[in-house]
Design a protein that fits this description.
Elements: H1 2-7, H2 15-34, H3 39-58, E1 65-67, E2 72-74, H4 76-102, H5 109-126, H6 130-148, H7 155-186, H8 191-198, H9 204-220, H10 230-236, H11 239-246, H12 248-264, H13 269-289, H14 297-318, H15 321-346, E3 349-350, E4 353-354, H16 364-367, H17 369-383, H18 389-403, H19 407-433, H20 445-460, H21 466-477
Antiparallel strand pairs: 1-2, 3-4
């Protein structure tokens, strides 16, 4: 009689995930029974479930807990990343409502799919073996494939969903093949057991497995050379979906990548460091140069996101606690800047017609000074101009790279950052110096709030960076 009772506490570390799973099942049932009339209720309750899960994560014990026979871990790193993922998902949902209402695309399935995808991301972040990692990844990805093609009557949306699905299936296969090789040569799927089996010496089979594993992970964070889906999916998906894609899933995939290399392969850093350096250099270079000729704002932000993933990987390449701290700070600030930028993109509306061309921002400084100022601050921050938050994000990863003697990587990172500043500053120039076009409709209250909050964080981060910096340090230390 005591065995079942003894097993109950093992579920507590996964309580936020269980809340998300139960919430999604209940909301699907409500939506199916009540039909389209339940859409607003389901949307509101989805946000509530996400915020409740966030509160549960914040309330978890600070000690490291491992459950499900070593497959699931809750530590400082997991808590840090989960809080940001849950908040990003909730904000993406709230920001989506105006767009979906105007396009008559509001259906109860959309928030439920976001909830299921977020559940997958939570499992990815806490995965402590290769099977849990794959389960979380697929749960998240399957929901993302559907919401990419959510507007079924829109050819571009359908095309985006299909491209993402086909390339996502390919990357999942590569990741699974890599995981099977690692398991075959180490005899375990659990990260700490893999590290113990390797004991600092990797056979050629393990290195091959690691390469395939990194290829699958690189696709999920849209790093070069597995970035090919990003511009098309960002441009083709409905803008609220792109907002979600650019924030929460990217952060979860980066967290998963950091945990895999720092926990399962800590003693063979020389092997995976070469892969990370290569994809970081490629991502920073492509992000800097490919975005220059873009005319679509969403496509420009897609290339921008590839570049920023490259910068974050500079910190991971260092393979140190300071490097992981830099990645955590970078990704947290990246999510803030991304949500602010997409609040502006969702505000590019005349009546019920949304525009995406960069030239449509002409003269925004005169027609809508508040929106123009917010957008300008976010663009300056993405460019890494001091004293805005984006500068400090890059500072932490570059310092970690220099401390690890990766001088060439840091120098190339700074140079690509300078090149990338060109297209960010071009947007500011168009908003303030070009002849004004017809004014956009006033920003929705939600978008205005998100833009204001994002601008304030970006603008005032240098005054009080300690909470984020200290939280990121605790998160990084918990991996060791």
């Amino acid at each position: 009689m005591t065995a079942p009772l003894a097993a109950v506490p093992a579920l507590l570390p996964a309580l936020p995930e269980l809340v998300l799973a139960a919430g999604s099942l209940i909301l699907v049932l409500i939506g199916a029974l009540a039909g389209s009339g339940s859409t607003r209720f389901v949307q509101a309750m989805t946000v509530v479930v996400l915020l409740v899960a966030c509160g549960l994560v914040l309330g978890q014990s600070e000690t490291r807990e491992i459950t499900f026979h070593g497959a699931f871990i809750v530590d400082g790193f997991a808590r840090f990343m989960k809080v940001i993922v849950l908040l990003a998902s909730a904000l993406s949902l709230v920001m989506a409502q105006g767009f979906l209402n105007r396009h008559k695309a509001n259906a109860f399935e959309f928030p439920v799919l976001v909830l299921l995808s977020t559940l997958g991301m939570m499992v990815m972040i806490s995965a402590h073996d290769l099977i849990a990692l794959y389960l979380g990844l697929e749960l998240s990805s399957l929901a993302l494939y559907v919401i990419a093609a959510f507007r079924r009557d829109d050819l571009k949306s359908t095309e985006a969903g299909l491209k993402y699905f086909v390339l996502g299936a390919l990357s999942s296969g590569m990741l699974l093949y890599g995981a099977s090789l690692v398991y075959g040569f180490t005899g375990s799927v659990e990260f700490t057991a893999i590290a113990k089996a390797l004991n600092g010496h990797a056979s050629s089979g393990v290195i091959f497995g690691l390469a395939f594993l990194m290829a699958g992970l690189a696709f999920k964070i849209s790093a070069v050379p597995f970035h090919m889906w990003t511009p098309d999916v960002y441009e083709g998906s409905p803008t609220p979906v792109t907002t979600f894609f650019a924030s929460a899933p990217k952060l979860a995939a980066m967290a998963m990548t950091v945990r895999v290399v720092m926990t399962a392969f800590p003693d063979i850093a020389a092997q995976w460091q070469q892969i990370i350096v290569f994809i970081a250099l490629g991502s920073m270079g492509l992000g800097a140069f490919a975005a220059i000729g873009q005319t679509n704002i969403k496509r420009l932000l897609a290339y921008s996101s590839i570049g920023h993933i490259g910068f974050a990987l500079v910190g991971l390449a260092a393979g140190t606690i300071n490097g992981v701290q830099g990645v955590a700070i970078y990704m947290a600030l990246y999510v803030v800047m991304t949500l602010g930028a997409f609040a502006c993109v969702l505000g590019m509306r005349r009546g019920d017609h949304y525009v995406e061309t960069i030239d449509e921002l002409a003269g925004l400084g005169r027609t809508n000074p508040g929106m123009a100022f917010g957008m300008a601050m976010i663009m300056f921050s993405l460019a890494g101009i001091p004293p805005l938050a984006g500068f400090f994000a890059k500072w932490y990863v570059f310092v970690a790279a220099v401390e690890a003697k990766l001088y060439a990587l840091a120098v190339i990172g700074v140079l690509t950052s300078v090149v990338g500043a060109f297209y960010y500053l071009r947007i500011v120039k168009i908003m303030y110096f070009d002849e004004p076009k017809e004014a956009f409709a006033p920003l929705d209250g939600t978008l205005k709030t998100v833009l204001l909050a994002s601008t304030l964080i970006v603008f005032l981060f240098w005054l009080w960076p300690a909470p984020l910096v200290n939280a990121a340090l605790v998160a990084a230390q918990s991996l060791h």
